[in-house]
Design goal:
Distance between the termini: 40 Å
InterPro entries: Bifunctiontional_GlmU_bac-type (IPR023917), GlmU-like (IPR050065), Trimer_LpxA-like_sf (IPR011004)
Largest sheet: 13 strands, parallel
Number of strands: 33
Organism: Mucilaginibacter yixingensis
Strand content: 25-35%
CATH class of the largest domain: Mainly Beta
CATH topology of the largest domain: UDP N-Acetylglucosamine Acyltransferase, domain 1
Number of helices: 8
Helix content: 10-25%
CATH architecture of the largest domain: 3 Solenoid
Structural class: alpha/beta
Shape: globular
Number of domains: 2
Protein name: UDP-N-acetylglucosamine diphosphorylase/glucosamine-1-phosphate N-acetyltransferase
Keywords: Acyltransferase, Transferase
Radius of gyration: 21 Å
GO molecular function: acyltransferase activity; nucleotidyltransferase activity
């Protein structure tokens, strides 16, 4: 049976993060949503997504296909319901398609809005509907992923120079840590293979450091925080999710935030996560083109893929930065920095696509010569055209 993670209209509510990826490629907890399903189902997977993403995220259809909503995170109850799903039948939650099992012919004409014969899911699954849901649900998903990845296994040994408080600590082979403090009494701590925690770091769980990532000396990190693969962080971080190939390598505060892939925060950059009047935070909504109430008192920065900020940048509470931006200068930039913008508080102009692509190619080259291929370039070209 082929597992196919599909996009429905939820992706529009998760812009700008989903301009450059399918829903199931969102990382929340330790794993992406797609990786969670793979671990549970022990099946290969592919994506049913927008046309301009399909080259990088291809679809594979067979005689028996299980389509799963890419915004839905697995749990035991949902997995049980899906295991009983007969061919031609679906699961819905409050009208939203969660999963459907289809033969080859029907799979080729799959439409998430079609009226499939469906059973209603009674128990609320974790569904990532808005950008802030990523850090809101990171604690729940990190704990679930920790149990999934470590069940029946023993942690590798790390240096005795570290202090570990509590028992929910797990290091994969190749993880390195020296002279640091790990407190697991508030949540588990997971160090992936070939990750490194430098000297003098203090980490309070829940926390995950993914493969080939590092935490620099003296950093202070509070849960629930995830640092994705091939990233480097330092300074003070609280309840944030940093995706792969991104850097926040210096002092400065990042809290209640999401950083996409290939992002860079300059030294001493900070985000506010609490308004001075302690009021509800609003975020820019791409679907309605105005600010949306989040229901949250704490909400910091949402930065999409390939965006960067210069040293000492100050982001106000509830700032959204689109794809491919370069933010710099004194003062607070606007609470919404549109995709492919260049500038800051004194004004924004368009970041020319050719110049942005030149920079991106250099960034890729620094990562062990990773190829900035036609699929990657095509996605950015498509997003640029969509946002003009």
């Amino acid at each position: 049976m082929a597992v196919i993670l599909f996009d429905d209209n939820t992706y529009q509510q998760l812009l700008p993060l989903t301009f450059t990826r399918p829903l199931a490629n969102l990382r929340v907890g330790i794993l992406t949503i797609a990786e969670k399903w793979v671990k549970h189902l022990s099946q290969d997977f592919s994506y049913h997504t927008r046309n301009y993403l399909q080259g990088k995220f291809p679809i594979h259809i067979t005689a028996d296909n299980l389509f799963i909503n890419g915004a839905v995170c697995p749990d035991d109850s949902l997995l049980d319901d899906i295991s009983k799903l007969p061919l031609g039948h679906a699961l819905r939650y409050q009208g939203q398609l969660v999963a459907v099992r289809l033969g080859e012919a029907d799979a080729k004409s799959f439409d998430h809005a079609a009226a499939y014969t469906a059973t209603e899911v009674s128990r609320l699954p974790v569904i990532i509907r808005y950008p802030e849901y990523i850090f809101r649900f990171n604690d729940i998903e990190l704990r679930k992923d920790f149990n999934l990845l470590t069940k029946g296994r023993e942690s590798a040994q790390i240096s005795s120079t570290n202090t570990i408080i509590g028992t929910d600590f797990f290091a994969e082979e190749g993880a390195i840590a020296d002279c640091s403090n790990f407190n697991t009494t508030r949540g588990p701590i997971y160090l992936a293979a070939n990750s490194e925690v430098w000297e003098g770091v203090s980490i309070r769980g829940a926390f995950a450091l993914c493969e080939h990532s590092s935490v620099k000396m003296g950093a202070k990190i509070y849960g629930a925080t995830t640092i994705g693969p091939y990233s480097r962080v330092g300074g003070e971080i609280n309840n944030s999710v940093v995706w792969g190939y991104s850097n926040k390598g210096h002092d400065g505060y990042l809290g209640n935030a999401v950083l996409g892939e290939w992002c860079n925060m300059g030294a001493d950059s900070n985000n506010s996560n609490l308004k001075n009047n302690y009021g509800e935070v609003k975020l820019w909504d791409y679907t309605n083109k105005h600010l949306r109430k989040t229901g949250l008192q704490f909400c910091g920065l949402i930065m999409a893929d390939h965006s960067k900020c210069g040293i000492n940048t100050m982001f106000n509470t509830g700032t959204v930065v689109g794809v491919g931006c370069n933010v710099f200068g004194g003062g607070f930039p606007p609470n919404f920095v549109p995709d492919f913008s260049w500038g800051g508080a004194e004004g924004l102009e368009e970041y020319r696509l050719d110049k942005m692509l030149e920079t991106t190619a250099r960034v890729f080259e620094r990562r062990d010569g990773r190829d900035f291929d036609e699929n990657e370039q095509g996605i950015l070209q498509a997003v640029y055209e969509l946002t003009r």
